[in-house]
Amino acid sequence: MKIKHIQRKKTPFLQRIYLPYIFAGMARTLKHFLQNASDTSKIEFLEYPEQKPQDITKRYRGLHRLTKNEQGELKCVACDMCATACPADCIFITAKELENSKEKAPLTFSIDLLECVYCGLCVEACPKDAIRMDTGIFTKVGNSRESFLIDIKTLSERKEGEF
């Protein structure tokens, strides 16, 4: 069996310590800083939340909502398909059986927005089209971790394009 040995070329010392690249990056940053400091009229900014972004497409995935049927009841049948499809394991559902029926409904339905990666797999997995991400709300601000746990009441009160 023939084995071919390849000699690696030794990289120069300056390339090994990355100093030229660090200085080049710092020089570029300083150049942009000085340009923006001398002429602030060219800086684009948005005074959020007073001004809303205009470049958000209709297909953008915003915060979640639960849909209702014509009778005003939640379409969710607590099948747990959305929680199963979720790669972040951020959806938590507890089911209850409905009276005089074989069907189930969610007793609790919560989403941890700090864990959610907004992939939309929960929407695709739902057989009843009960969960959607079309609220138009794309930012959530809170002061504590608990404020990012969205419960069934909040999810069912949201409307499409509520932005």
Automatic annotation (TrEMBL):
Cofactor notes:
Binds 2 [4Fe-4S] clusters per subunit.
HAMAP family found in the cross-reference section = NDH1_NuoI (MF_01351)
- Tell me the PROSITE patterns matching this sequence: 4FE4S_FER_1 (PS00198), 4FE4S_FER_2 (PS51379)
Q: Binding of [4Fe-4S] cluster 1: at which residues? A: C76, C79, C82, C126
Q: Which organism is it from?
A: Helicobacter enhydrae
Broad EC category: translocase
Q: Which domain of life is it from?
A: Bacteria
> Domain 4Fe-4S ferredoxin-type spans what residues?
64-96, 107-136
UniProt topology in membrane = Peripheral membrane protein
User: Which GO terms fall under molecular function for this chain's record?
Assistant: 4 iron, 4 sulfur cluster binding; iron ion binding; NADH dehydrogenase (quinone) (non-electrogenic) activity; quinone binding
Its keywords, alphabetically, are: 4Fe-4S, Cell inner membrane, Cell membrane, Iron, Iron-sulfur, Membrane, Metal-binding, NAD, Quinone, Repeat, Translocase, Ubiquinone
What does this gene product do? NDH-1 shuttles electrons from NADH, via FMN and iron-sulfur (Fe-S) centers, to quinones in the respiratory chain. The immediate electron acceptor for the enzyme in this species is believed to be ubiquinone. Couples the redox reaction to proton translocation (for every two electrons transferred, four hydrogen ions are translocated across the cytoplasmic membrane), and thus conserves the redox energy in a proton gradient.
PANTHER family, sorted: NADH DEHYDROGENASE UBIQUINONE IRON-SULFUR PROTEIN 8, MITOCHONDRIAL, NADH-QUINONE OXIDOREDUCTASE SUBUNIT I 2
* Cellular compartments annotated: Cell membrane
Principal location listed in the UniProt entry: membrane
Q: Which reaction does it catalyse?
A: a quinone + NADH + 5 H(+)(in) = a quinol + NAD(+) + 4 H(+)(out)
Which InterPro entries would you find in this protein's record? 4Fe4S_Fe-S-bd, 4Fe4S_Fe_S_CS, NADH_quinone_OxRdtase_chainI
Q: What is its EC number?
A: 7.1.1.-
Gene3D superfamilies in the record: 3.30.70.3270
GO cellular component, as recorded: plasma membrane
Organism classification: Bacteria, Pseudomonadati, Campylobacterota, Epsilonproteobacteria, Campylobacterales
State the name under which the record lists this protein: NADH-quinone oxidoreductase subunit I
Which residues does [4Fe-4S] cluster 2 bind? C86, C116, C119, C122
Task: Give the required cofactors.
Answer: [4Fe-4S] cluster
Q: How does it assemble?
A: NDH-1 is composed of 14 different subunits. Subunits NuoA, H, J, K, L, M, N constitute the membrane sector of the complex.
> Which family is annotated?
Belongs to the complex I 23 kDa subunit family.
- Signal peptide positions on this chain: none
